[in-house]
């Protein structure tokens, strides 16, 4: 039986990056993925801030396009923020994961595509991991010192039985990749366009992202919980087609691919982070942020944190991964709790009018501030800018009201003949 220092199950952004980091530091790593190619589950839209590339040493080959403009459209409002330089990228998700896997191989470790994790057992102080290779009835077993669950929302290693009594919040997204003419592409190039409100996507939001020259990604995603006000919704495809027919009016296009996926977030980050020598990263421990469903860079960040603890464990400096869980909670808990609360109000409680009003207030924010809100989940700009504005509007309303009361008293006095 082959032996590895670390076996990482799942070659998404978190598994790929974790395997890459550990292989780089000289560990013998196996990265195993159930799909045979990265084109097979190319489900993510891939919009991230540009700093992520430098921070995690990602090459320009994994970039589909750049963006420097944010557009938010609601049922009745249209707001735009523009920067003078690119502030983010839309990743080619398949190329990103392929690049990470190639890095693992380049460092002398192994990548097994088409290998589905079945189960693992403890045997003589080691963990035996069983995989089912695609198209083969025989399973393959390997042994490892550390096993990493990077299987995303499936949590195949940590939670093999589907019955978990945890407070999960799930969301579902579908996306069309369409080919359009170059003049149509130019209209939507370099910007992320988001659609909010009950017309475009009750319980969630829709989007148009530029994927690469002449290709646009048009998607819709929503939370799978009842809305306080909206009783009935249509299929996700209906909302995507609404954007194509109503917003992109008359565009001529060809559908290249339809893909999508599920996000499963555990409220209060109550996931199991480790059990003995098994550790979970990325969406398997809810690193996706539920305000906008952004999860790629957070999954990669969790892989960086985990690889430090795995190295310490392999070196005998840690006896378990409890400090990994503490570090993850320190990094995410406060902001993620807050984002979840904001997401639930915005997507599941607000009336359409309130969404319109909220977005109209956002025009008080500068481009830097809107980026802070959307990508750093820093809501201070809203309080700093919008509360004084609301206070000003309220006091103007009160002044107006007092004026009206005064003038009606004056009118009454005039009618009574009192001077
Ligand atoms: C429609 C949609 C759009 C999104 N858009 C964005 C976006 O624009 N920006 C952003 O940052 N995030 C986005 N996200 C979220 C982001 O894609 C995820 O948060 C991110 O991919 C999580 O990375 P991960 O590596 O933890 O898990 P995943 O990417 O889910 O990777 C898990 C891997 O494990 C494999 N696996 C599962 N079970 C097994 C098994 N038994 N054996 C072997 N392999 C297995 C899977 O095949 C998969 O490759 C989007 C998500 C969806 C659904």
UniProtKB/TrEMBL annotation:
<dbReference type="InterPro" id="IPR036188">
    <property type="entry name" value="FAD/NAD-bd_sf"/>
</dbReference>
<dbReference type="Pfam" id="PF12831">
    <property type="entry name" value="FAD_oxidored"/>
</dbReference>
<protein>
    <submittedName>
        <fullName>FAD binding domain protein</fullName>
    </submittedName>
</protein>
<dbReference type="InterPro" id="IPR050407">
    <property type="entry name" value="Geranylgeranyl_reductase"/>
</dbReference>
């Amino acid at each position: 039986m082959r032996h590895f220092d670390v076996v990482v199950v799942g070659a998404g952004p978190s598994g790929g990056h974790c395997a890459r980091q550990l292989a780089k530091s000289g560990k013998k790593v196996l990265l195993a993925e159930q799909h045979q190619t990265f084109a097979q589950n190319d489900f993510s839209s891939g919009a991230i801030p540009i700093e992520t590339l430098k921070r995690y040493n990602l090459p320009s080959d994994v970039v589909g396009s750049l963006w420097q403009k944010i557009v938010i459209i609601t049922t009745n409002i249209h707001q735009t923020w523009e920067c003078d330089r690119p502030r983010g990228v839309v990743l080619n998700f398949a190329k990103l994961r392929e690049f990470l896997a190639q890095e693992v191989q380049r460092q002398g470790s192994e990548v097994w595509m088409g290998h589905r994790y079945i189960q693992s057992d403890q045997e003589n102080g080691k963990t035996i991991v069983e995989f089912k290779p695609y198209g083969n009835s025989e399973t393959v077993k390997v042994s490892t010192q550390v096993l990493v669950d990077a299987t995303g929302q499936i949590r195949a290693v940590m939670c093999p039985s589907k019955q978990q009594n945890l407070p999960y919040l799930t969301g579902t997204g579908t996306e069309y990749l369409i080919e359009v003419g170059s003049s149509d592409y130019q209209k939507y190039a370099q910007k992320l366009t988001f659609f909010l409100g009950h017309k475009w996507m009750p319980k969630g939001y829709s989007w148009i992202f530029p994927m690469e020259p002449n290709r646009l990604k048009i998607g819709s995603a929503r939370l799978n919980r009842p809305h306080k006000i909206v009783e009935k919704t249509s299929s996700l495809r209906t909302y995507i087609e609404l954007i194509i027919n109503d917003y992109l009016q008359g565009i001529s296009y060809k559908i290249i691919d339809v893909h999508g996926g599920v996000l499963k977030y555990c409220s209060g980050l109550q996931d199991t982070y480790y059990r003995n020598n098994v550790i979970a990263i990325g969406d398997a421990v809810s690193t996706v942020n539920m305000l906008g469903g952004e999860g790629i860079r957070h999954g990669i960040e969790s892989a960086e944190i985990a690889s430090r603890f795995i190295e310490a464990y392999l070196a005998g400096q840690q006896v378990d991964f409890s400090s990994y869980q503490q570090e993850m909670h320190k990094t995410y808990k406060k902001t993620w709790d807050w984002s979840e609360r904001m997401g639930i109000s915005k997507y599941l409680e607000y009336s359409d009018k309130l969404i319109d009003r909220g977005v109209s207030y956002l025009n008080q924010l500068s481009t830097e501030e809107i980026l802070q809100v959307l990508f750093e989940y820093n809501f201070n700009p809203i309080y700093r800018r919008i509360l004084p504005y609301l206070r000003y509007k309220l006091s103007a309303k009160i002044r107006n009201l007092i004026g009206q009361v005064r003038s009606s008293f004056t009118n009454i006095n005039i009618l009574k003949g009192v001077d």
